[in-house]
Amino acid sequence: MKAPVLQPFEQLRYALWIDWGARIGLAVLVALFFAYATGILEPLVPHERLPEVWQLPATQYVEATAMPTGWHWLTQVQRGDIANLIGIALLAGCSLPALLVVLPLYVRRGERHLAWIGAAEIAVLLLAASGLLTAGH
Amino acid sequence: MHRVVALGALAVIACVVAAPAHAADAAAAAAAGSSMPWWFWPLALFVACFVMGIVAVPAGIGGGTLFVPIVGGFFPFHLDFVRGAGLLVALASALAAAPMLLRSGLANLRLALPLALVASASSIGGALLGLALPVAAVQTALGVIVLGIVVLMFVSKRSEFPIVAAPDPLSRALALHGVFVDGATGKHVEWQVHRTPAGLATFLVIGVLAGMFGIGAGWANVPALNLLMGAPLKVSAGTSGLVLSLVDSSAAWVYVNKGAVLPMIAVPSVVGMMLGARIGARLLTVLRASVIRRLVIGVLLFAGLRALLKGLGVWT
User: Fold this and answer.
1) Is the CB of A15 less than 8 angstroms away from the CB of B251?
2) SS3 A61
3) CB-based contact (8 Å) between B312 and chain A?
4) Beta bridge mates, B179
5) Rounded Cα gap, residues B40 and B50, in angstroms
6) What is the largest CA-CA distance in chain B?
């Protein structure tokens, strides 16, 4: 059996960051869901109303419940259902810091192509997260 | 990570334990057109995802691929919320597996980045398209895609170590190569890829499908990396998960921003699937993978037909 191959430093660094990002995101998600499901944090949409609204398209659901869209959910983050979006945002966003960490490593090694690709990926993720893009039924 | 998932299971169970306190809710639910109390469906979803997680690993298919057709076909949630939750299921599973795969060299960041860039950009377009199209059209297209996956599972060939005589100019410029230790033989395997432009074009289409239907796209990523670009099968499977983690992040943001992510649907799904996948991985040596694979193909066939007929208004 040969010795294990040491992977490139930037790859190991990226692994470390998404490992912790995913752990933290999942832990926050689970803790806030517990608070939401047990009623510790009062939701915007009461539990008993869910069967009525989860059958609706997202646009009608937003209208029927006055659920904030885009980043406006931050204004009602004390609500149990909306607080869960913190955990979801952490999971959906944990690749961003990992990419930001590896970019300078590519630049320092003179791998400009990969640095540009990484920067473009960050831009795509930020555009998606910005809420600027809209659509609906 | 497993402690977090176990805590999640406890949270879902606590939700169920707390549910009797909401017994009066059953009446409200009945008034809303369902005879079940509100907590029945999240609990059923958790159990269904737990089972999907168990069978997904031996079947060699991502749990996210099973999630959308099955939950979309047999649960009362609107397809918008099912797709939003499906993306999070695939995202959480990909993020959980990626660190170990990156450390072992079975996932390659250098190879994943260019593919993820085109796929995540197009997944935003796919997500916007999915949220804009009439639900019947999306449901019909989903049925066609799922039936296509069934056909792909039947006919697709895999090559453990494809022969790549020489890398293409783009692959050479980006140094898309690597090395890993094959656990089965203990040998160092060096690899490189070719046909990178064709690979990029394929991932552009894959991104649209992933965003539009909320399904993990491992079923398409692995053949594209393995058969088209010539990456070894294990590297293809590992890198596919890494690409998914970036693609599904982009698409998931679109769903979050549009209010198409319901925590009461998404969280039990994520926790159930991750818990089931852990059990599935442990049962890998005990279960007969071929039997499970055939079973999953059967279920997917049924779910695909259901989606197709539901979309066409034949079986509503």
Assistant:
1) no
2) helix
3) no
4) B190
5) 15
6) 69
Is any Cβ of chain A less than 8 angstroms from the Cβ of B196? no
Q: B155's torsion region: left (phi>0), alpha (psi -120 to 50) or beta?
A: alpha
Query: Quick check: B18 contacting A, CB < 8 Å?
Result: yes
- Please answer yes or no on whether A117 and B22 come within 8 Å at the CB atom: no
Count the Cβ atoms, other than its own, within 10 Å of residue B189.
17
Interface check B169 vs A, CB under 8 A: no
Contact indicator for A79, A44 with CB cutoff of 8 Å? yes
Interface probe for A, chosen from B93, B106, B113, B316 (most Cβ of A below 10 Å), is B113
Distance of CA B19 to the CA centre of its chain: 30
Parse chain A into domains and list their residue ranges.
9-130
Within 10 angstroms of residue B260's Cβ, the number of other Cβ atoms is: 30
Does B266 sit within 8 Å of A48, measured CB to CB? no
Under a CB-based contact definition with an 8 Å cutoff, are residues B76 and B32 in contact? no
Confidence class of residue B1 from pLDDT cuts 50, 70 and 90? low
Cα atoms in the Cβ-side hemisphere of radius 13 Å centred on A93: 13
Count CA atoms closer than 13 A to B7's CA, side-chain side.
Answer: 16
> What DSSP assignment string belongs to B84-101?
HHHHHHHHHHHHHHHHHH
The one-letter amino acid code at B259 reads: G
Return the residue of A nearest to B79 by Cα: A57
Measured between beta carbons, the chain A residues lying within 8 angstroms of B261 are 85, 88
B73, B306 contact by CB (below 8 A)? yes
**Distance between CA atoms of residues B65 and A112, nearest Å:** 36
Instruction: Give the predicted TM-score (pTM) of the model.
Output: 0.87
Take residue A105 and report the two structure tokens written for it: 């490593």
Q: pLDDT-based confidence at B27, cuts 50/70/90?
A: very low
Partner A, chain B 57-116, Cβ-Cβ below 8 Å:
76-78, 80-81, 84, 88, 91-92, 95-96, 98-100, 102-105, 108-110, 113-114, 116
How confident is the model over A69-123, as pLDDT tens digits?
999 999 999 999 999 999 999 999 999 999 999 999 999 999 999 999 999 999 9
Query: Which of A4, A10, A55 is nearest residue B76 as measured by Cβ atoms?
Result: A55
Confidence bin at B34 (pLDDT 50/70/90): low
Residues of chain B positioned with their CB less than 8 A from the CB of A22: 1, 92, 95-96, 98-99
Q: How confident is the model at residue B6 (pLDDT cuts 50, 70, 90)?
A: low
In tens, the pLDDT along B113-128 reads 999 999 999 999 999 9
Record the tokens describing residue A119, joined without a space.
Answer: 């920067």
d(CA B118, CA B138) in angstroms, rounded, equals 22
